[in-house]
Amino acid sequence: MAPIPGSGLAKGLAVTLRTMTKKSVTAQYPDAQPDLPPRTRGVIGLFEENCTVCMLCARECPDWCIYIDSHKETVPAATPGGRERSRNVLDRFAIDFSLCMYCGICIEVCPFDALFWSPEFEYAETDIRDLTHERDKLREWMWTVPAPPALDPGAEEPKELATARKTADKLAAQQAPPATEPHADEQARAAERPTRPQGDSKQQTDQPKPDQPAPGQEGRE
After folding, report:
1. Three-state secondary structure of the chain
2. What is the pLDDT of residues 26-63, one digit of tens each?
């Protein structure tokens, strides 16, 4: 069946009329900031204290846009006669966001939670070389990382929190002053009480004094 002449024009005018009666949803950016979801992939933040220079994020990055430099330091033995240990010290941690494709693999493979997504996206530069963020800049993005969502009421407590709580309780128990035993307090109080001579007794205390008459002899005198 051949289409009716002018049907396409009529459909187009119908769509135009429907949209003209609806309220506009255009956001006046940058005056009005968009309400981004919490899992927005804006920029990557670095929590340097958790980084152990394992190089796992740099090896797994498909674009090879993560640059890490480090050196080894010798840590003295913690106890006399112990062995010295060596540890990696982070010298440089940089991400080239002109190459990054925001896949999030580096954040997922980090075993020590040193990398996080931040919803910030306003870091455009006029020079492409300024898109390489060093570790100081990456540390600043950490303050814009949103807090993790709350656990479900019936969810199990994470093992990290349980271990940290047990360690804190153990340290508090070690630092608390030792409790005194009840029998020790009783012995101390008993030592402070005046002692009664061995020859005295209740019967002796009930006997009248020499200058007082005995009971029953008061009326005979």
Report:
1. CCCCCCHHHHHHHHHHHHHHCCCCCCCCCCCCCCCCCCCCCCEEEECHHHCCCCCHHHHHCCCCCEEEEEEEEEECCCCCCCCCEEEEEEEEEEEECCCCCCCCHHHHHCCCCCEEEECCCCCCCCCHHHHEECHHHHHHHHHHCCCCCCCCCCCCCCHHHHHHHHHHHHHHHHHCCCCCCHHHHHHHHHHHCCCCCCCCCHHHHHCCCCCCCCCCCCCCC
2. 888 888 888 888 788 999 999 999 999 999 999 999 99
